[in-house]
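The passage that follows is intended for readers who have already worked through the single-chain material. We present the inputs for a multi-component assembly, then the predicted structure in tokenized form, and finally a short commentary. You are encouraged to pause after the input and sketch how you expect the pieces to fit together before reading on.
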Amino acid sequence: MFQDSQKQKIIDTLTNLLVPGGKYKFSPYIELAQYKVLFDEVVDSSKRREQLKKIIKKHGSRIESIANKISEFFLKKEFTREKYADPLFLDTYFVHYFPVNVCKMQHMMLELLQQDAIGESLRIVDIGVGTGTTAVAILDFLLATKTVAVMNGAPFDIRDIKIICVDVNENPLSYSKRVLEAYREQLNSSSLDGEIGDYKKILIDCIDSIKYVKHDINSLDLNLMDNNPDLVIASNVLNELTDNGKNNLYRSLNSLHDGTLIILAEPGSKTASQNLMYFRKRLSSSGKFSSFSPCVDGVADHSSCSSCWNRRSKGFNQPLLYMETHKLLDEESKKRFTEQDNDLLSWSSAIFRKSSRSVQEPQVENEYRFISSYTLRDYEVLKCCAAGSGHSSLEVHRPYGIEIPPLFYGQKMVITDAKKEVNSGTLVVKLDTNSCVKTKQREKEAFFDSYS
Ligand SMILES: C[S@@+](CC[C@H](N)C(=O)[O-])C[C@H]1O[C@@H](n2cnc3c(N)ncnc32)[C@H](O)[C@@H]1O
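Having made your guess, compare it with the prediction:
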């Protein structure tokens, strides 16, 4: 997509735009679209924060009912057909889940860009639209990328953008339409001009051409071939499907053209994550999909895969409405959220490319694939993929003070001169001052070249 000489600078700038200070930021265009949909309020960009505060105050009782609904939902987290038919539940989803899910989707897009996986056309099928999360997240991501590309004098020409939104329920389909129209209005009234203004028109045309399709994947396969998509996304849907629905999804994905990318995302909870890994294993062992991120192909021993808790997490800069709503939760639910909470984006994902021949990756000695990390008192635990290791899980322990290159989800690193031991089925690689950790070198290491 980008020339090698420009790519890292663009990715770094984009990361700084989307994730300032390491915490995801909800896009201002999407945030204002949210106020339009929920409160029918139009916010102009001057004195924005004061205006948002006033709107929140004005609609206090509405926000309180949304907060009550969130507290009620936390007692029994169930996404049922009846829930999606309730307009207040969709508002609740839109306030509580939509902002974090938008950021998760943008993060996965950033990783795909980093891995040169995005081509010049982007025909997308979004299975299970909810409140329009995926479509809005991707359109906004493209706008941000175009902005950064223009800043760097780089071409960014994804022009063939088509989106099909699929859902079993009428209500999410019409809710998504309202969200996308509100986002369209934000773009339309923005002062973006020049090359970015031209790109904005491409995005607006795309929104105008979105198809909303009612389809129950539990009852019938989804014919994906006709639309010849480049990207198929099922975000937070798999765990809502029946066994028959999962079989239908499996067959629908099987019918895709070679080269199509598939993103499956689920919550970060152990059960949701392991169910996703179970489905992932099924796709992977069919030999018709090559695993893109974060898992390896071509490993004889996959025994650790179906129990892998492939959770990842990121920090989130809570938008005003999100924060104010959560202040109104009942005491028990409130415990889940603090202003300092740095772990609000929690999810698991599996990304594939449809391919008639699976890619056999050569096994490299002492190579590990990074999944996620968490900190303990004396060291950081880097969870890595255990497939092929002969152990049920694999961890690298990094004592504080030992620095290693920045790692992204699914990135490979070669570790030499580290001690290894096995603790209750987990292979532990312990870094010390003699150890060497190498990842593939980046072209430029810093946001500002002159400081690299
Ligand atoms: C939790 S929401 C996910 C929304 C959005 N993709 C996101 O990540 O925020 C799940 C969506 O999948 C839809 N869904 C559930 N079962 C489905 C089925 N059998 N066929 C099609 N859509 C389904 C629901 O109606 C709902 O809109």
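Commentary: The longest strand covers residues 345-354. Residues 170-189 form the longest helix (20 residues). How closely did your sketch match?
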